[in-house]
Amino acid sequence: MSVYEHAQAFWKEFAARQPEIEQALIQKEYPDLLHALEPLQESARELTGCGFFVEDAADQFEMTFDPGPNKTSQYLARYFTELCPDDILRKWIVNPVLMPLSQKAIEAQVQIKDHIYTLMDFHVFYTLDQQSQTFQCQVYCPGYSLIDNEENKREMSMYLMELAIGQTLYEAYIGSVTFTDQPPKESQAFCPLADFYEAIMTVVERDHWKTYRSPLEIYSVYQPFQDFAHDSLRRDMKIIFTTHPLLAEETLGSGSDVLLDLKAKDGEYGYMYYANPYNGKDDALLRQEISRQLDKAMSSLHAGQVVGGAMGKSYSYIDWIVYDRSKFLKAFEQLKKQLDDKVELHYQAFGIEEEPRGMQVT
């Protein structure tokens, strides 16, 4: 099986249960809704690592894959939503990440001792870091003083903030989140947590901060601590740029959790590489051009997607998440031929010791 086949099977299962789900939403028959959703939630968790929930929006039904901060799950959720059939999209909004102030957020309740608190009972006090374009936050609730465990209060604050502002803004603009048992005495900007999304966007627009449509548009840049004079594959890297920091860290070290997580879902992480032809700044421009060309081709085939890359002393690298290995390798052979006049392209799966695709051993 492949991730592509899993996505097709998921939407076939959803279409079979769609009338039952829609009827339950319209009639607000929540026991029936939970019964209809349970198999889909199990499938979503197994195939993507995501939570999955539905709600009745103003004009359309709405469903959400909730991957949390897990980048593999975020990529799989986006891939599944991209493959959603048109018949479903005519009636449904399909979200690949948790959106701001979803029905889940509005209905969220926290019990502290004998009191029930909703999102409206929480406030956020914040300062801005213009250099990093982030908010440093303290979340306050009148009930926090009744909780002794500080880690519980911190986790509750982070969870409720994510519900309030959505996954994309949480990853893009939140530098830190902690809690406070009492409102800060010093003068500090604050607002109800339910209004924090609007407060963030006001600052983003006013101060012309970089904007993001997805957490997968957020790139991290690394300079590996290693011998830059080394010429061997993946050890010559001078700068790494990635949307998946844990993958980058794992492939630099000896871990395998990220690789095994995707492998268990029938996908694969890998990289394409080629020898730098210019040994200068033109190599970076060429890598960017080739990366865009390959990403467009593979994405159109639903075979794979670029997740980052690196510039090395000897080689340039383009890192991939592969959704359908058979499609990907077939397309790779064709794309390799198209690029033969520029570079000799090779492909290698991360964590697999075998002869790289496109390389002849002499």
Characterize the structure shown:
- It is a single chain.
- The chain is built from 11 helices and 15 strands.
- The protein is an alpha+beta fold and about 350 residues long.
- It folds into 3 domains: about 100 residues, no CATH class; about 100 residues, no CATH class; about 130 residues, Alpha-Beta Plaits, CATH 3.30.70.
- It has a 6-stranded antiparallel β-sheet. Strands 8-7-6-9 form a 4-stranded mixed β-sheet.
- A hairpin with a 2-residue loop joins strand 4 and strand 5.
- Helix 1 runs antiparallel to helix 2.
- It is globular, with a radius of gyration of 23 Å.
- The two termini are about 35 Å apart.
What is the gist of this entry?
The protein is α+β, with helices and mostly antiparallel strands. It has eleven helices and 15 strands.
List keywords for this structure.
362 residues; alpha+beta; Alpha-Beta Plaits; 3 domains; 6-stranded antiparallel beta sheet; 11 helices; 41% helix
Q: N- to C-terminal separation?
A: 34 Å
Poorly predicted regions = 358-362
Report the count of strand segments.
15
If you average the pLDDT, what whole number results? 93
Tell me the major beta sheet: 6 strands, antiparallel
What structural category do the secondary elements indicate?
Answer: alpha+beta
List the strand order in the largest sheet.
10-11-13-14-12-15
Number of domains: 3
Radius of gyration: 23 Å
Query: What is the CATH domain class of the largest domain?
Result: Alpha Beta
User: What CATH architecture of the largest domain would you give?
Assistant: 2-Layer Sandwich
